[in-house]
Each structure stands twice: as C-alpha cells, then as structure tokens.
Amino acid sequence: MKKRSHKKEVKDRIKSHIKKEDRVKVITGRDRGKIGKVLKVIRKDNRVLIENINIVKHHTKPNAKNKQGGIIESEAPLQLSNVMLMCNKCVSPVRIRMQQLEDGKQVRICRKCSEIIDA
Ligand SMILES: [Zn+2]
Questions:
Q1: Would you place residue 68 in the very low, low, confident or very high pLDDT band (cuts 50, 70, 90)?
Q2: Could you tell me the distance, in angstroms and rounded to a whole number, from the CA of residue 100 to the centre of ligand 1?
Q3: pLDDT tens, 24-65?
Q4: What separation in Å is there between the alpha carbon of 85 and the centre of ligand 1?
Q5: Nearest 5°: CA angle at 50, between 73 and 80?
Q6: Which residues surround ligand 1, an ion (CB under 5 A)?
Q7: Which CATH number is 44's domain given?
Q8: What are the beta bridge partners of residue 48?
Q9: Full residue range of the structural domain in which residue 41 is found
Q10: Within a domain: 11
Q11: Is residue 119 part of a domain?
C-alpha cells in the first residue's frame, strides 16, 4: 500500500442519488450481482457501506470488550460507481432522474417505469 502524501487532496465527488436505506445492486467486483441495503454513504470518499456486502475480516487483539481477541467480520465500503439503485417495480438496477413535485419536494424517478423511488 502506498502512503498518501497529500492529506488534503480533494476528490471529485461522483454525482450520485444513492441514499441511506436504499436498496442497491453491486455491479462490479467480488460481490457483483448481490443486493443490499445502504447503511451509510461516505460522500467525501465517494463510497457506500452496504449491509452484508464486501465483508472483510479483521484480526483483533484481546481488549476489554472482547477478551479472546480473534476475527471480526464487518462490511467495507464500496465505490459509489460500483453500485446501482434498485427500482422496486422493475426489480432491477435502473438509472434515475430527479423530479420536483408540486409541493417542491425533489424525488427520484425510475427512468424505465417512471415510478417514484422515494416513498
Ligand atoms: Zn422502475
């Protein structure tokens, strides 16, 4: 692993409409094809944490919480560009567009079936 020399380096943020609690499909990588719920969106890194996706094992030393130490499994964040939002109606990953409702609320619309994704 290379050490990052420029700590303040600003990455371009990927334009993404994915939010916490969304159902997304992994489109590339080890977990390709899997569907999971978004636990957290890490905007500054353009990454997203998804339930039960990209599980990594951490070896831990014994501590107060875990006297035995050992291996802990947890999710590692994925690149935002590696996941796609699922449309519940199409039951497939879809592209979305934004639309403003009469009350001014911005919602996400499936480009395929025009169903509002934000319920
Ligand atoms: Zn749809």
A1: confident
A2: 18
A3: 999 999 999 999 999 999 999 999 999 999 999 988 888 887
A4: 10
A5: 125
A6: 87, 89-90, 110, 112-113, 115
A7: 2.30.30.30
A8: 41, 78
A9: 23-110
A10: no
A11: no
